[in-house]
Amino acid sequence: MLLSQVRDNDGRTAVVLREGTEAYRLRGFQTVYDLVCDCIERGVTISARIQSLGFGAVIDLEQCYLEGRVLPPLTHPEPSRLYLTCAGNDDRDGAEGTGPDWYYKGNGDSLVAPGMDLPPPRPTHEAAEEPELAGLYVIGTDGAPFRLGFALANEFVASDGANAPSARSRLRPASVGPELRLGSLPRDVIGVSRIRRGTAIVHERRFHTGEATMTHDIAMLEGTHFCYDAFRRPGDVHIHIFGGVVSSHGEEFRSEPGDIFEIEADGFGLPLRNPLGPALAATGQRAIAVTPL
């Protein structure tokens, strides 16, 4: 089962569920966050709660996507209480029982909706996509993390060292969705990453991910993240990206303004698409004067 969120024409949020080709509005809840909090309180699974609520009107999810009304599949009513993080590639010399490092990417304001511009970290021609999977979580009232499922994710990388392990270089937007796959992650996920320029596909590459090809299993990656008390605050949302497997970076491909980065994978619903937006140097950073009090 797949879940997503869309914005109605009146500006309100609606939860959409899909099994097969048909998508339906969910009755009883306007956001996935409210649905999940209700499930935690009742002690039931999301799938079971959905079945008890029943399906509403049919939704043309692809048309909503074309109209720019698809939202990230999980948000928080207070964006500062959403943590966007990503697992690193450091295996800590392969020491037994240790997992990779991870880094903070931002809060809910750094989460870009599917279909919206995703700004690269550096000048446009240096930007490259990085198809990834993300786990989506809500922290329960007792501080226990609950995983909803998994979604496609993308963050741009740059060819000038923006992947260096510095906190400042990691603080940048990412996009997740458009649909959330409920339940466990398949051991082997097969997908395609492509770049569209106008009507042409100018770059395309298949990728494999899932625990069959990951250095660390999901439990290890989750354990190295949620072991901190500060990351188990009741009611918070966490979107933890598990790291990329392929990229056009390093293949001498030069992106251009207007390119659309598209990622799709079997079992994850509609592709994640984001046009290449203005570089962060122009949009995400500016000189700030601090006023003493």
TrEMBL record:
Gene3D superfamilies per record:
Fumarylacetoacetase-like, C-terminal domain
Annotated Gene Ontology MF terms?
Answer: catalytic activity
Q: What is this protein called?
A: GguC protein
Q: Which organism is it from?
A: Pelagovum pacificum
